[in-house]
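Chapter review. Work through the record for UPF0145 protein ANASTE_01596 before attempting the end-of-chapter questions.
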Amino acid sequence: MILVTTEKIEGKEFEMLGLVKGSCIQTKNVGKDISQSFKTLVGGELKSYNEMMNESRAMATKRMVQEAEEMGADAIVAVRYASSAIMQGAAEVFAYGTAVKYK
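Structure tokens for UPF0145 protein ANASTE_01596:
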């Protein structure tokens, strides 16, 4: 499955099948939340949250691709990501794009 952020794939003609999306909401355990809150006092990268967001993006992408495969898509164009805080220490990552089938 080809994923691109552009609206076209060079050298390919395709028909649009429709919107596909995937999302993931994750949180870290309370122990990680406490240790990361101490990190805000001294500064630096919040590695635990960084890992959480990377895992969430991967899961949201996987779910989007699964939806596209179920539609018989060959690729997804105009792929975008969005994220939002759900509550303290929890975030949603949302992936979306347009499923296409080559002609």
